[in-house]
Amino acid sequence: MTSVPMGAPGAGELFQHLRDGEPRTKAELGELSSLARSAIAARLEALVSTGLLRPVGEAASTGGRPPTRFALDDTAHAVLGVDLGASHAAVAVIDLVGNVRREVTVDSDIADGPVDVLDRVLDLADTLLTDLGLESRDVMGVGIGVPGPVEHSTGRPVHPPIMPGWHEFDVPGHLNQHFDGPVLVDNDVNILARGEHVGAWAHEDHLLYVKVATGIGAGIISHRHLLQGGVGTAGDLGHVPVVEGETATVCRCGNVGCLEAVAAGPAVAAVLRERGLDVHTTQEVVAAVRSGDTDAARAVREAGRTIGGVLATCVNLLNPSIIVIGGTLAAAENLVAGAREVIFQRSLPLATSNLRIVTATGDRAALVGAGAMVLEQVLSPSAVDAIVSRTLLENAG
Questions:
Q1: What Cα–Cα distance (Å) separates residue 80 from each residue in 36, 121, 178, 371?
Q2: What whole-number percentage of the chain has pLDDT above 70?
Q3: Which among 217, 164, 165, 170 has a CA at the least distance from the CA of 190?
Q4: CB 3.0–4.6 Å: which of 12, 204, 248, 372 could bond 385 by disulfide?
Q5: Which domains occur in the chain, in start order?
Q6: Which of 288-299 are b and which e, b meaning 16 or more Cβ less than 10 Å from the residue's Cβ?
Q7: Strand partners, 94
Q8: pLDDT (tens digit, 9 = 90+) per residue, 79-116?
Q9: Distance separating alpha carbons of residues 17 and 231, to the nearest angstrom
């Protein structure tokens, strides 16, 4: 019978010092954790037995036997990050440090319904895992971003306007027929906020991510944690009223004068069509701006100013240190310039004294954010302790 390492409780806390992938010796872990060397040795032995850690060679000796370094094993386990859009599906295999090992994006109509779309995701995931020599049992969890509101506690979409057939569909239940680990679902804006935060802006404690495309939404990072709100709808900027009166535009939510109905991509395109410009999509609006069309440039900047008025309230209320503006319409620099102009004009001086307003960094943020969401859960101290306990019991038997 295999001996069971003693002192395994607390291994999950020690593991957190190795989640960045940097190899460390027992002495270095002692400095970080303030644990006795014997306690560190027992916890490391338990963690190595799970396959989460591995010895990775020796550090330089200061006299005597060179000390062994230990590092997170980023090859034997992985999580999946999934980004579902109106017309695409992207899947990535992500290692335990949070790095994308392999990814694929295909055309996929969200209106095909949950079964067809999710089965497509499963096929893509199986191919990626096979290419990496992994199996479904090696997947510790799945994170998914969808283009609609989600009840955070259940992972079920709730009346998503561009996702017919998805209302209250059990997304986690469907994928758990294939994967054993947790399946976490959130709206795409929260996923993007996580991705931007753990990527380019990991050093920021307070971040506000704003997506401006067909709709408008925000993801709020406060004290390095995503704010979900009571049922997961925090950050729904698109339905803040900005125009009143009988002439106000009707929003898809049924109310009138919402920010989304006035300043999102389709709204800007509608304004430009009234001015004689043949544009119908957000992408066409951006193309018109880039081609030098002055009407398009003015309309996008005005949309940015309108958005900036709402964001000025957010700055006074939340006091973020950085606002990251992404989404299709943000590709037109006039949008961010217009928003920046009004934010600094209307926000309190103290709140903007160190505020930065930047454009989002890239297309991979959604996949990285989806992976980060599930890694946060499956590698938490309590989750790692549970893995250690289960492994020790299996080994003892």
A1: 36, 10, 12, 6
A2: 95
A3: 217
A4: 12
A5: 11-73 (1.10.10.10), 78-193+368-378 (3.30.420.40), 201-359 (3.30.420.40)
A6: bbeeebeebbbb
A7: 79, 100
A8: 999 999 989 999 999 999 999 999 999 999 999 999 99
A9: 32
